[in-house]
UniProtKB/TrEMBL annotation:
The keyword Zinc applies. This is Ring finger protein 123. Keywords: Metal-binding, Zinc, Zinc-finger. Residues 74-254 form the B30.2/SPRY domain. CDD domains: SPRY_RNF123. Residues 695-721 are annotated as: Disordered. GO terms for cellular component: cytoplasm. The lineage of its organism: Eukaryota, Metazoa, Chordata, Craniata, Vertebrata. Pfam families: SPRY (PF00622). GO terms for biological process: proteolysis involved in protein catabolic process.
Length: 721
């Protein structure tokens, strides 16, 4: 019987043993000295001076956990900093007081940091007050209407006419009317706009109170205010109907910290120190490479780093993320550490290199962290980016907006992260339409428009219909120069805006990707499912009221979406020469009036339906060869009634009732952006409801289960506006 393999000849080359150098190259295994050097390079303490290699304690994967625990030890002062601080009274986590510290009708976000006004002049204060020291908090302005922001004492009594700054011991800044308030009012500061950040500073040692707008001091507003025993000041705001803001007492890094002033809520100093040290270790992994063949460490740029699957590197990263993962779930640390790290990556190297590093970082997150940890991290990361994008000042080249959009694109290029964000975050938690809006500057000089467009131009004489009565040949030389300079400035501005618009279109093209590699539902399918629901909620007002998108955001969103659609259309045209170009596409006018398209039961489409039927009915009818019934036309025009007109008697007698507490009233759309990111606001506050639900005598068992309601006749004018 022939043995197995008989008749086969094997050369010596087939059985040659692998040399140590080749074994290291193939498996990534490194010898003890190189491993020790590598671990000391990655996990070096920032406080220790460099020592000779002979005096260092040898490091390996067996004693690395002990070394890492020592590296992450922080001072006891940092550990105890989250306790009660001198000069401050109240919970260490500062939020809006939704139990007793409010007046009027208000809607407060789930995080208790965003608020929307629902009455004439509602007021709310925080849960924490200060009586000594220097303190600061920030207010993110989501709408630029009537609001008074500042400080008050617990003894201040407010109503629907008097808010913060209208009583003794309350002080406020009003950027809508550009005034300061303390019983009397005088001019102060600058006008604010949606997207601005107001810093409120109080110095209880010197007795001064001041404000900053986007980090620029507006000067001292008040001096020598009341202090002493029994005097403590709460952050507070009064805001009119539909106005909205979001507070930052210190739960997130302050955008504009002020030297010498501390936020009302202390930062998590101990966790912040640990996160920064772990990030330093992670940066070291990205900037050093093992060369097992030569037995040495190779320094390189982090933008050139690639994950090659070396066991030594993977084990090192596993030890880092074992401690890093729980920290990356926290709001403050994601914004202060992780977001800033990724923004730094985007600024190093080329765009392609930066996107490659971000993709590999996200790969590591999904590899070494639990799914729920990655989900929380990505959610907080996108919330941070959205907040940074919306509340960044407008600079001449829009560089800040470009920076945040570029990182958003790099994150969305990672397929697994993109699908999770589409399925769970972008439409469900975030108001992602903000990414497609470009904020208009209110203050021309701060936006650099005077340098961009140094001169203005318009015809001196115009006809009765607004048409120029002067021909171009009648222009003087000076007018011609002014016109050309104006047109050049407009073109420069247009080009800068087009850069941002192009990035916004790239975001949508990623969300519309139909060629995902890893199977499952395509990104395009998930996006269209969410987008259809988004349209239904906004078209019919059947969704959560605070989620309704303002027209200016919706127009920008749809414009970018159409641009992305045209890109895909033109790609199809390139592959199919017989297809039409996207420029040839149009919407037939008859779809707006022939009744064949169901716009989610919506009778109006931005006023087009009634406008077409009233003003263009004859032309449309002749073009489409149809007849429009005059009675149908009369019925269709009923939806053009002004919303501010008094309702008819029949409408007033409808059996409409509103729950006084426990649910949102059927009010007009409130400010859509109270919290810059959160998509739900379910705490409905009403002092009237509280008074109704506070009985003057003990209730019987039967009475306790009754729900107090307000009939339509009992509601105030503000409630039913």
């Amino acid at each position: 019987m022939a043995s197995k393999g008989a008749g086969m000849s094997f050369s010596r080359k087939n059985y040659r043993l692998t040399s140590d150098a080749e074994k290291s190259r193939a498996t990534g295994i490194v010898h003890e000295k190189l491993l020790n050097d590598y671990l000391h390079r990655v996990f070096s303490s920032p406080d220790q001076a460099p020592t000779a290699a002979t005096s260092r304690k040898p490091l390996n994967f067996q004693n690395l956990p002990e070394h890492l625990d020592q590296l992450l030890q922080v001072d006891s002062e940092d550990e105890e900093s989250q306790g009660q601080a001198e000069g401050r009274l109240g919970p260490s986590t500062v939020v809006l007081d939704h139990t007793s510290g409010f007046e009027g009708l208000l809607l407060v976000d789930d995080d208790l940091l965003g608020v929307i006004g629902h009455s004439n002049f509602g007021t709310i204060r925080s849960t924490t007050c200060v009586y000594k020291g220097k303190w600061v908090y920030e207010v993110l302005i989501s709408s630029q209407g009537l609001m008074q922001i500042g400080w008050c004492t617990i003894n201040c009594r407010f109503n629907q006419e008097e808010g913060v700054g209208d009583t003794h011991n309350s002080y406020a800044y009003d950027g809508n009317r550009v005034r300061k308030w303390n019983v009397t009012t005088t001019n102060y500061g600058k006008a604010w706009a949606a997207g601005d950040i107001v810093s409120c500073l109080i110095d209880l040692d010197d007795g001064t109170l001041s404000f900053c707008l986007n980090g620029v001091s507006l000067g001292t507003a008040f001096e020598n205010f009341s202090r002493g025993p029994g005097m403590a000041y709460f952050p507070a705001i009064s805001l009119s109907f539909k106005e909205s803001v979001a507070f930052n007492f210190g739960s997130r890094p302050l955008r504009y910290p002020v030297a010498g002033y501390r936020p009302l809520q202390d930062p998590p100093r101990a966790d912040l120190a640990r996160a920064q040290r772990l990030l330093g270790c992670f940066r070291a992994v990205l900037s050093v490479e093992l060369d097992p063949v030569e037995g040495r460490l190779v320094e390189k740029e982090s933008s050139e780093w690639q994950l090659q699957g070396q066991p030594t590197v993977l084990l090192t990263l596993a030890h880092i993320f074992h401690h890093f993962a729980p920290l990356l779930r926290k709001v403050y640390l994601v914004e202060a550490v992780f977001t800033n790290f990724l923004l730094g990556v985007m600024e190093a190297g080329t765009t392609a290199q930066a996107q490659a590093v971000v993709r590999q970082v996200l790969d590591l997150l999904w590899l070494f962290m639990e799914d729920y940890e990655v989900h929380d991290c990505l959610k907080q990361l996108m919330m941070s980016l959205l907040r940074l994008y919306r509340f960044s000042p407008i600079v001449p080249d829009l560089s800040l907006q470009v920076r945040y959009l570029q990182l958003t694109i790099a994150i969305l290029k990672h397929e697994k992260s993109r699908k999770f964000l589409l399925s769970n975050v972008l439409f469900d938690v975030l108001r992602s339409a903000v990414f497609f809006h470009i904020k208009s500057p209110l203050r021309v000089e701060e936006a650099g428009l005077q340098e961009l467009i140094p001169t203005t131009w318009w015809p001196h004489r115009s006809g009765r219909e607004g048409k120029d009565s002067k021909e171009a040949k009648d222009e003087t030389a000076e007018e011609r120069l002014r016109r050309r300079a104006y047109e050049r400035g407009c073109q420069r501005l247009k080009k800068r805006i087009e850069v941002v618009e192009e990035l916004q279109v790239q975001v949508l093209k990623l969300l519309l990707n139909n060629k995902d590699d890893n199977g499952g539902e395509a990104s395009r399918y998930i996006f269209l499912t969410k987008f259809r629901k988004f349209l239904q909620e906004n078209a019919n007002s059947r969704g959560n009221i605070p989620l309704l998108c303002p027209p200016e955001y919706m127009v920008c969103f749809l414009h970018r979406l159409i641009s992305a659609l045209r890109c895909y259309w033109d790609e199809y045209k390139a592959a199919n020469p017989h297809a039409s170009y996207s420029d040839e596409a149009y919407v037939p006018p008859q779809v707006f009036y022939n009744g064949k398209v169901d716009y989610f039961d919506q009778q109006r489409l931005g006023g087009l339906l009634s406008h077409l039927r009233k003003t263009l009915k004859d032309d449309l009818a002749s073009k489409a060869n149809i007849l429009i019934d005059p009675l149908e036309l009369q019925a269709a025009t009923m939806d053009d009634l002004d919303e501010d007109e008094e309702p008819s008697p029949a409408a007033a007698q409808r059996p409409v009732q509103a729950l006084a507490i426990g649910g949102a009233l059927p009010l007009p759309r409130p400010g859509w952006l109270s919290s810059p990111t959160l998509g739900r606001a379910n705490r409905f506050l009403s002092t009237a409801a509280v008074s109704l639900m506070t009985p003057r005598r003990p209730l019987s068992t039967a009475e306790k289960v009754k729900v107090r309601t307000l009939s339509a006749e009992q509601r105030t004018r503000e409630d039913s506006s």
